[in-house]
Structures are given as structure tokens and as C-alpha cells.
Amino acid sequence: LTCSDARERLSALLERPPAADAEPLRAHVEGCPGCRAELAALMATDEKVKGAVFALSEAAPPADYFDELAGRIDAKLDAPPARPPGATRMMVGLGAAAIMSGAIGVVLFIRLHEGPGSRIDALRRGPGGATRGETAAPAPPPAPPPTPVVESKAEPDDGRAAAPEKPADRPADEPEAQPKAAAKPSAAAPAPKPMRAADKGAAVETPKEEESAEGGGGAVSPPEVRACWEKHRQDGVVVARITVDADGRVTDVVSEGTLAATPSGACVAEAVRQTRYPEGAARTFRVTFSLHR
Amino acid sequence: MLAVCSPWMTDETDSATLVSRAQAGDRGSFTELVRRHQRRAYRTAFHVVGHHGDADDCVQEAFVRAYRGLKAFDRRADFSTWLHRIVVNVGLNLLRSRKRRHYVVAFEDTETVARIESGAPDPARHALGRDELAKTVAALGELAEPLRVTLILATVEEMSYKDVAAALGIPEGTVAWRVNQARKQLRGRLAPELDEAQADEKTLDLLRRTRTALGAP
User: Fold this and answer.
1) Closest Cα partner for A32 from A55, A71, A53, A1?
2) A250-256 and A137-138 as β-strands: parallel, antiparallel, unpaired?
3) Closest Cβ–Cβ partner in B1, B93, B179 for A171
4) What's chain B's Rg over C-alpha atoms?
5) Chain B within 8 Å of A183 (Cβ-Cβ)?
6) pLDDT tens digit string along A194-220?
7) How does DSSP classify residue B60?
């Protein structure tokens, strides 16, 4: 085991319980002052994270919060069962899938199986009766063209542009019926046009596209992003939410999209971080990079 | 009906008894369980969502779900472990449905910051100074959300990679990758300064404990 191998894997020693195959690593680090120093830095980092997060969670609730919580929950138990979070998006997703595939039968199927008292029914009756509007949810961004290696597109960050999420990120106990077409833009699925779901008056719309391939008036350099694909060979989408200060410096990049938490996502974010945008007003915008063969 | 309405319940009533009574439909016993577990549940919720309003929604929803699912609770795990899982799942769902970046917002919440600075509720419990705290929270806010959530579940909530993988619906290898990645990014940004002798003592202690846990000679 070399020091550079060991340093790549130090996290395994902080895992609880430790990974079963960690013994060679552990033995190396025990005898290696340099690796021990690096491990110490990672431990100190963890301590800081814990300290900060606990400080926030301790200070966040108002003083009398815990005196009243049990009573509020008790009152809630008498209310009719509320919709489970996610039900709304599931319905919109199914509706969108039905329209995209032209399979009206799917919509009919849902209607037939919604008896009174069903979750969806409860949703419509929800508190204040104002639940109709809630069914409006952003659809995933248009499917990227499959051919070019890198395609970037920018749009203002108005909070509506939700990147398609990896279906695998759902919690195990609540599988959500994310239609494949929505979760994985593919060559087969045409880009969804702004549409109005006929059932339940749900507005399904795509984010407004203000096309400027430069991304917020700057020069995102495709060669560097292309290099990310060359390096990692992962197909997918990175939606970078970029904040730029008045001098055009990138102050913040958050990546979303199917490649967000992968080496490719990190690579694209790093490439964006190195980019200098034109001076002007401080601004935040999103750029979608589609990485394909 | 609140707990005080059940005269046959004392502070000493153990959790197993409360769970049995709640499963049999006694609302007072359930409310007592809420009282006993609310602080930890709230903390977990906050750690996942990073914002008081959402943590409040999350904790209420989790207890309501626990109440409705109580009959299906088979008691193979502790009530607190079972509840923890529910809180985490509700929190993750909430996080997905809201595209706000709470760990950044959390520190801009002046009331919370004022409370931290005034030392309430217990300044001794967190040793971070104001600047360090601000820097750490900012660095957390800048992590990609999947990285941050995975790191927090593994290190702050001290869940095993297996449990984190189950909660997020991802392979354990991905959990390990994300935790490693998140730690590296934070380490680079926070660049903790170390007292060498003290640091070495801590690491050697960890390595000894790891050896014991691995059952190595």
C-alpha cells in the first residue's frame, strides 16, 4: 500500500463500523506519520462539521418550541390523513408521461382507481381547498440532443428549473413512480413542449429558455467540459447553478442533474469555477451541460 | 387528549410499555413518546433539511406517520431507531421537493445566529468560534446537496453506510464515494489547523479502536 493509495482511502477509517477490509490501510496509517497527519485533518474537518451543525440545530428552534410540539402533533392526529409528500409530483409525472406517450388510457386508469377517500381525493380536499394550484410542478428540462458531446444551455435561475433526479435517489420505502421518459432524457423521447395536463388542471411547463449558449453572457469553455467527459466517460446531465459577482468572478457553483454527485459533476463544477464571466451585475443563472458520446 | 390525562402513567413508565399502550390505541401514551423523542427527532430533521421551518414540518409529519404506522411496528428495532428512520425519510422527501439551499440560508437567519452568539442554550457544547462557525456553515452550503446530505447522515447522524445507502436508495459504494468526496472538499476549504501532538494522540486512539472493531490481532 503506497501513501497516495492510503490517502485516497482514509475515509474508510472514519466509517462506522469500519469497513471489513480496512485492516491493511489501518496498519499502514499507524506506521506512517504523514498519513496520520492527513487523517487528523479529516477528523478535525468532521469535528468542525459536527460542531457547526449541532450549533445550528440547537439554536434554531424558538424557546417555547418543545413545550408546544406534542400538543400540535396531538391535534394533527385528529385531522384526516394528509397526502404523502411526493404524491403531487407523482401524479403530474404520470400525467406528463401519459401525454407524452399519447397513452390516454393511463389517465383513465388512474381516474378509475381513485375511489372516494383515496390519497388523491384527500389531496383535492386538502386544508383550505387550495390544493389545485399545488399540482403545478416544473417538468424536467427539455431532453438534451443526443449527438454532440457537450451541449450547454443557460437559463435565469428563477427557482423553477428542477433538474431531473436520479431515480435511484428515492428512499427505499417510498418508491416514486418517476416515468422513465422524465427521469432519463433519451434520444427516443422528444423534448417536452410546454403543455397543460388535461386532468386536474395541472400545469406542466418546461423552464423558460433564454437561449444563450454562453451561459449568462459569459464564456463557459466547452473544451474543458468536454475534457470532463473524455476523462470520466459518463453520459448524463449536469445543471450548474452559477453565481457570479459584479466583477464576473464565479463565487458559487452548485451542480444538480444526473451527474451531480459523480466525478463528472465535480469536474464540470471545477471547470465552471475557473471561468471568468463579463463584468456587470452580480447574478445567478443555470447552465445545463449534456455530456454524451 | 394529552399525556396529563392519563393518571396511570408516570415519568418512570418505560418506553416499551408506552409503545405497547400506544399500539393498543392509547393516545396519551403516544403523546408521551412524542415528548421523550421530540428533541432528537427535531435535531435529526434539522440536520437533514437545514432550516427550522422545514425541520418543524418534517418532525410533525414524521410523528404523524409513526402514529399511523405504529401497528406495523414489529419492535425488532428500538422505537427510537424506527422513528429515526422515518424522520430521515420524511426529511429527504422534503429536501427533494424544495429546491432551496438551506445551509446557506440557515446562517442568514439572524435570530438563530443571535442565539448562537449569545451562547444559548449552551456555549460549552460547541467549541467553534463565530468566524469558524460561519466558515463551516458556508462550506457546507457550497457542497452539492447529495454530497452534503450523505456526509451529514454518515458523520453527524452516525448512520452506517448500509443504512445511509438504504435511506437514499443508492449503493453503499456510492455512499463511500460521496462521503470521501465531501470530506476532501471541506478539508480543502476549511484547512483545519492542528496541534500536532494532540492530533497524533487522537488518530492513534482512533486506529487502536478500529483495530479492536476489526478484530485484528
Assistant:
1) A1
2) unpaired
3) B93
4) 20
5) no
6) 333 333 333 222 233 233 333 444 445
7) H
Query: Please, which residues bridge with residue A195 across strands?
Result: A204
Q: Is A254 on the interface with B (CB under 8 A)?
A: yes
One-character DSSP codes across A244-273: E-TTSBEEEEEEESTTTTSHHHHHHHHHHH
Q: Do A260 and B146 touch (CB under 8 A)?
A: yes
Cell for A221?
469553455
User: Going by DSSP bridges, is the β-strand pair A137-138/A203-205 parallel, antiparallel, or unpaired?
Assistant: parallel
Chain A nearest C-alpha distance from B108 (Å): 11
What are the residues whose beta carbons fall under 8 Å from the beta carbon of B90, sequence distance 6 or more? A85, B45, B58, B61, B62, B65
Cell triple for A138? 416544473
Cell of A271: 471547470
For A153-194, the pLDDT digits (tens) are 454 444 333 333 333 333 333 333 333 333 333 333 333 333
Interchain pair B216, A23: CB under 8 A? yes
Distances (CA, A) of A29 to A10, A14, A36, A46, B200: 9, 13, 6, 18, 11
Using a cut of 0.80, tell me whether the model's pTM lies above it. no
Q: What is the pLDDT of residues B78-112, one digit of tens each?
A: 999 999 999 999 999 988 887 655 555 554 555 66
- Chosen for mutation from B207, B208, B211 (greatest number of chain A CBs closer than 10 Å) is B207
Candidates A35, A73, A239: best to mutate against B (most CBs of B within 10 A) is A73
ipTM associated with this complex: 0.86
* CB contacts < 8 A (A, B): 250
Cell of A189: 423521447
Does residue B99 sit in helix, strand or coil? coil
Positive/negative CA dihedral, A183, A184, A188, A189: positive
Angle of the A33-59 helix axis to the B196-214 helix axis, nearest 10: 90
